[in-house]
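From the pipeline queue, job 12 of 40. The input is one protein chain; the requested action is below.

Action: predict structure.
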Amino acid sequence: MSLCLEVFAVQLDMLHNAVGSRDDELFRGVSRYFAEQWPQDDDNYFWDDDLTSSTAARAVIDGGPFDAEYGHHYRAAYLNICEFLFTDYRLNNEYFSGFRSGWLDAVGKALQQLGMTATPLDDLTYMGGPAQLPVSDGTQHGEWDLARCRAGLEQWHATTPEQRTELHPEVLGAVVNCVGWMAEAVALSDQLPEKFGIVAFLV
């Protein structure tokens, strides 16, 4: 089974604050955006669950109540909320779409080898979701804030061509993919009043 990282440049405060916001307008907007997808998800992925995608999204926006049995539902809903709010800021995931186990470890080790300690890949993939959401073995989530993105970018620019050529070309491509995410967050934050970071969902 292949995995995928869905990556977005986001205003982290806005995304965090959506959980428990009780924002009816947000719920209506997410519901309209996923009007066609949610019934398919319920039939194809959650067919044996009592909780629907719509009900899960409502619970996340309301801050509960949550049923620990359906943590995967709530985390999928959190991804849906992120996608709705930041659909125009979905980032290129060329090297992280359709990969198998072991790939993230290889890229994470490459980042460390290059001295890019500010942006551990594990923090972008396994850091967990908002504290309010139940623990889940399903969709995982992590983030790099703006400070980490700036530091990671500086560490990348401090690497040498010799260091980079020591990496397998595919792994180097994935590292450059990650650097592109950091650069996008920094560029948006420099251009706009809002501050951006990176959020990724491992699905």
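Job complete. The CA atoms of residues 153 and 183 lie 7 Å apart.
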